[in-house]
Amino acid sequence: MNTTNILLGTTSLLLVVAFALSFGDFNKNRNSASANKEYEEIRAELAAQKALFDKMQLENLRSSAIKTPAPAPIASSPAQTDTAPLSEDLKSKLEAEIAKLKDEKDKAELKADTNEKETLVLMREKTKAAQRQERDAQRVTNALLMGNVSAFKKDWAWLSFSPTDSANFQPGQELGIRRNSGILGRITIDRFEGDQYVANVKENAYAGGIPDIVEGDEIIVIPPFYGVSGE
Predict the structure, then answer these.
(1) Distance, CA of 185 to CA of 161 (rounded, Å)
(2) For the whole model, what pTM was predicted?
């Protein structure tokens, strides 16, 4: 029982005593107006005290029904486990494996570096070859026209051509056969007959032997440094 209940009980007891004393007077003066008034006042006071008592009881019941939530459990930290030291044999195996992986990595990096350098060299060589071909084509295009093929015998590997006005060749002199911007083959002057030069046709490795020459192909002086890779 708490302090509030004790006070309420004491107050109620006093009221009961007061009611009892007043009731004695009331019996003596039952018909008096003052006795009736006092009686009504005592009843009202008792009713008020009872209502207050009931209210306090209800509040006590509510407060006792509300439970304080239990604190959330704190997760315990994982237990520390002791790690056993590595054995010497296992340690040696791990070190050997690490060394092997490092060696493989170094080899792979070296191979990649070598491949990159080789690729750069090939690209430079291709670039040089392309530039050389471009220079050769330009030189062939700019070479002066010395004549045009008038007859060709592939089986005999010879041809004849009509020279231009400024053309003057000696036996054994080498000339080129131009088609577009390339040299189709080479010839060697054999002799001069009438108004025609007769020449022997050299085999062309790129053509697989004697090239297929047609009438109208142009005769030129082979440009200096033509096809020279070291230029």
Answers:
(1) 14
(2) 0.45
